[in-house]
Amino acid sequence: MSLPIIGLIVFAIVVSGAMAGLAASERLPPKHATSETKSVVSVSMAIVGTVSALVLGLLVSTANSSFQTRAGEVTQLSADIVRLDRMLRRYGTEADPARETLRHYAERKTTDLFPALARQVRIDDRTTNELLDRVEDQLLALHPTSPQQQWLMGQALQLAADISGTRWLLTQQAGQGTPVPFLVLVVFWLTLLFASFGLFAPRNLTAGISLVLCALAVSGGVEMILELEQPFTGLVQISPLPMQQALATLNW
């Protein structure tokens, strides 16, 4: 199920809670609509509202932190690819086959992470990973003959290991996000809160529009959390510019 559809479902559930509160208000006996009852409901829902606001704020902060981390890993990956190419260029013509394989790896990785509209994101593609393994094998097959080449070889192997490590980080973090039961609990809190709003709300257009807009706002917050947890496929995506710049450097 796509993320926008989930956001619409959350919006529909929260609005339904408000409408249920409005419908229930018509059937409340007079003794249940006293100022004392309204005060108890307001205080109770204030606690639920405070908890909901704290949890939503925490989830947004966590999702944004995860998004920024993934973006940093993509930037680090592109920088390590450029640095490795620079080391191999300085090594000499013997490293040209490894450089060519590295260029193919960068092209495939960019396409995997930031595909065209007709393709799906493939964070862990075996064919792409085999290209990186081939780069490492080609590096190990080189025989440095001078102290400079020995130093460059050590740096190149370390960078290749760093690229592999970043690739595994991106792979292992894929699919991590807010647990579904926790998300269901938050939606339940919000629905309960809006039901209490509708319970004592006046039956006029202004009140109805206010409830709908507030429901849209909180469901948008839930949707944003889910979007930030899917940085390669959601509406809010990581910029492909670092990888594109790395490709341009390798092709230069």
Describe the secondary structure blueprint for this structure.
Layout: H1 3-25, H2 35-91, H3 96-113, H4 126-140, H5 147-173, H6 180-199, H7 205-228, H8 241-250
Helix pairs in contact: 1-6, 1-7, 2-3, 2-5, 2-6, 2-7, 2-8, 3-4, 3-8, 4-5, 6-7
Helix percentage: over 70%
Give the distance, in angstroms, between the N- and C-terminal Cα atoms: 42 Å
Shape: rod-shaped
Number of strands: 0
Number of domains: 1
Count of DSSP H/I helices: 8
**What structural category arises from helix and sheet content?**
mainly alpha
Please mark out the parts with pLDDT under 50 across 5 or more consecutive residues, or reply none.
none
Residue-averaged pLDDT, rounded? 87
Oligomer: single chain
What radius of gyration results from the CA coordinates?
Answer: 27 Å
Strand portion = under 5%
Let me know the largest β-sheet: none
H and E string: HHHHHHHH
Give an overview in words.
With 252 residues, the chain is an all-alpha fold. The chain has one domain (3-250). It is 77% helix and 0% strand. The protein has 8 helices and no strands. It has helices at 3-25, 35-91, 96-113, 126-140, 147-173, 180-199, 205-228, 241-250. Helix 1 (3-25) runs antiparallel to helix 7, helix 2 runs antiparallel to helix 5 and helix 6 (180-199) packs antiparallel against helix 7. It is rod-shaped and about 95 Å long. The model has no long low-confidence stretch (mean pLDDT 87).
Brief write-up:
It contains eight helices and no strands. The chain is mainly α. Helix 1 packs antiparallel against helix 7 and helix 3 packs antiparallel against helix 4.
